[in-house]
Amino acid sequence: MSFSSFGLSPALLKAIAGQNYTQPYPVQKEVIPVVLQRKDLLGIAPTGSGKTAGYVLPVLNNLQGQAEARNRHARVLVLVPTRELAVQVRDVFIQFGAELPERVKTIAVYGGVSINPQMIGLQGVRVLVATPGRLLELVESNAVHLSEIDTLVLDEADKMLNLGFREEMNRILALLPVRRQNLLFSATLSDQLAAINQLVLHNPVVVKIEPEKENIELIEQTGYFVSPEQKGPLLRYLIKTRDLKQVLVFTSSTYQADNVADKLCKNGIDAVSVHSKKSQGARTGALREFKAGTLRVLVTTDLLARGIDIEFLPHVINYELPRSPKDYIHRIGRTGRAENPGEAITLVTPEDQHHFRVIQKKMGRWVTMIDSAGIDTKGF
């Protein structure tokens, strides 16, 4: 099956070719026809499965030839849980909409930055990607109106519910027209999600894409037994002696992320930390440089374990273990994506060993372990 078989416009097919897409992913094969038919949809699909393009392409196609809404009255609303995902989704709309004969103005709005530029940018908006809190602020300021929304997308709905957005989402839903298309995407189907499904969706088509085990199988996993005081030298040893590029390092706290990045820089390794306490501009800039390959190491917390798509990322290093096996899978799943191999390295202290055995058991795969006591890290 090719993208041309869906009946997408020639302009979108040209944009798809320009993004080097060849064949649709499984989730796209299922989702695109449903959205084009303007049916409601419940999509259960793992992060990194290609679902964003799966709804962006048909939504853009459906907007073509549609009468323009009044100023500051968006036609499409995409609700997301984080600023990073808002920027990512906006960029996908802009990339695929670049060749369209009718301009589709897309803007992302989120907290943590000044509201005034966002208020100005909402002039002529057609696609609005938003985090719930900032959207409500803008609605209350009459900077945008939701009475002409034709399509509502809830992306990462499970994460939004976990982060406590339920009340805000209910307020937003009350502002939307009753007649609209609803698209809800989630990595899991929980009882909480079932409740929001009943509130939002009308006779939805259900698409469920199982996580591909091949994604984990493509990841070469290695663990190093290491003492706490040797973690830093070992990390620098691995990066320098193996000349690793584009390395995503996970820590368990914002303090540790800053500390690790600082020590890497002091030892001649280009590194930046990204976490919830950094400004949005700093986070966006660091991610942009890292994706472009101009930043060697990005040190982060579980902020970037989900919802962020970094294609062709070769290396993930767990400087500290996450709290749950599921978080471990999300972390290492940043690599080994889109059928590309990747490597995940985990540093395991004596007190971590039991927890790491639990993670491996839950994952259903045992990791090759190396004793770092035999590695000379002097000078690193």
Q: What does this protein look like?
A:
This protein has about 375 residues and is α/β, with parallel strands linked by helices. The protein has two domains: about 5-210, P-loop containing nucleotide triphosphate hydrolases (Rossmann fold), CATH 3.40.50.300; about 215-375, Rossmann fold. The protein has helices at about 10-20, 25-35, 50-65, 85-95, 115-120, 130-140, 155-160, 165-175, 190-200, 215, 230-240, 255-265, 280-290, 325-330, 355-365; strands at about 40-45, 75-80, 105-110, 125-130, 150-155, 180-185, 205-210, 220-225, 245-250, 270-275, 295-300, 315-320, 340-350, 370. Strands 3-4-2-5-6-1-7 form a seven-stranded parallel sheet, sandwiched between helices. Helix 2 (about 25-35) runs parallel beside helix 3 (about 50-65), helix 6 (about 130-140) packs across helix 8 and helix 14 (about 325-330) crosses helix 15 (about 355-365). It is elongated and about 70 Å long. It starts with 9 loop residues before the first helix and ends in a 9-residue tail after the last strand.
